[in-house]
Write a structure and sequence with these properties.
With about 600 residues, the protein is of the alpha+beta class. The chain folds into five domains: about 5-180, P-loop containing nucleotide triphosphate hydrolases (Rossmann fold); about 190-275, Translation factors (Elongation Factor Tu (Ef-tu), domain 3); about 295-365, Alpha-Beta Plaits, CATH 3.30.70.870; about 370-480, Alpha-Beta Plaits; about 480-595, 2-Layer Sandwich (Alpha-Beta Plaits), CATH 3.30.70. Helix content is about 25%, strand content about 35%. It is built from 14 helices and 31 strands. It has an eight-stranded antiparallel β-sheet with strand order 11-10-16-7-8-15-12-13. β30 (about 525-530) and β31 form a beta hairpin.
Amino acid sequence: MKHIRNFCIIAHIDHGKSTLADRLLEYTKTVSARDLQAQVLDDMDLERERGITIKSHAIQMDYELDGSKYVLNLIDTPGHVDFSYEVSRSIAACDGALLIVDSSQGIQAQTISNLYLAIEQGLEIIPVLNKIDLPHSMPEEVSDQIIDLIGCKPEEIIRASGKTGQGVHDILRAIVERVPAPKGDEKAPLKALIFDSVFNSFRGIIAYFRVYDGIIRKGDKVKFLATGKEYLADEVGVLRLDMEPRSEIKAGDVGYIISGIKEAREVKVGDTLTHIDRPCAEGVKGFEDVKPMVFAGIYPVDTEDFEELRESMYKLQLNDASLTFEPESSAALGFGFRCGFLGMLHMEIIQERLEREFNMTVITTVPNVSYHCYTNKGDMIVVNNPSDLPEQNYIDHVEEPFIAATIITRSEFVGPIMTLCLGKRGILKNQVYLTADRVEMKFDMPLAEVVFDFFDKLKTISKGYASFDYHPIGYVESDLVKLDILLNKDNVDALSAIIHRERAYDWGKKICEKLKELIPRHQFEIPVQASIGAKVIARETIKALRKDVTAKCYGGDISRKRKLLERQKEGKKRMRQVGSVEIPQSAFMAVLKLD
């Protein structure tokens, strides 16, 4: 066991984690020159197209140092704030972490929050200064920032370049020398943490685990503690570039198990795996439940595909444990799911994956957050969907979730960022100059204001230099109202939103104008209205398409024309009573891009 090292790579988005992981795999000859490609571990099409890591990837490497052979288990993690749950899972299965900082950009918000996650779990941190080969890299300044942050010695910081391979051998040596070997007892009952799982259409569900105590062998009878399900281990093995079967996996190592599990619900990430005849006393600790931040409805375009969508969601949840969902129905869209996501990017990725991996075409409704509504009787209702909010006269007050946001930026952008955050009802808490031209700003903000387009706007006004990180701090009472959208006097529940009263008039007017552009004209006139309760606050009218019925009248008496026009008017009136309005998918999405 003393020759095993388990470590992960943490960093801000785009600081070169995956490229450095490629070099580690290349230098330890884990990947042959023929299979080598950029970002070897990012195997999803989406990851390659966008150049971001979405999933954590585990892989085992062999490394020889001073005549001893070592086994290194690497987990490459995502850097984006929306996938921080993946990071927390990887950290739970490791003993050390490479903290990578881009030497041309310095420390950014996500670097700090991922670092705190690792320190809380008691991991050994190895600081690495990456992209040292760039002409505008600032190794001295950034080294000082790292020393201020984690209090290490200057000589402990490794300078490296994922592109040229400089410093990679130093990193491998540091992993062996600094990361502690896993502790555990091979003779104790089996105790293994499941940190990821994938669905394979031929072999069922494959679970990845890290063994803390005991040994798991092929053919063992095992059970999952949280679900209580029992299985036979058909195959166990280690994760190389492909899966390699082994006869046994011992304490301290990372591996996978295939046991013919068909039901996605039976594997919970964070669960503990143990033997049936000699179970361990308690499960593995240090694993938090996911807290979804953004809620949106996902509906199949065809109502018949509902069951198929449910299966797809379960399979996706296996691979992405931070997705939560429950069935709901909407008058406008039929049956679907209310899903919880960690952020807007996460929501976008899930929608793309449903379309690509499972060929589902889905409609997504306006994202919102969960509110606490207190009624006159003193009951508390959790509102995840605007349609759950009771009528105004039954409500005592409504509370909305607040977050503590940390923004790190160049000092020249302080003004515009301040304007943006205060415009989003933010409260400035603190402002600290980290260096002469880098500022850390802390705001308390309503989560609902951050959900929409805050991140995009922040990146735009700071020319991409601001980094953003947040965590929830609780609920605060606010003056919130439910804004309904009526089409042809019918309430479209999929377009309702819970919004601050001051914003409601402006927002209602914008939505009505947008819908007027997007909804095609029908044979009858359609009023588009925004209302708070019974009070209409904005209105636009989509004019009717009409045939020129008087075209055949040339000359003659005016009463003939009038008769034809009156008859047309009667027809339109009757049509408006029975006609239904077709709403295109783009209308549901337009609300996201109102500004």
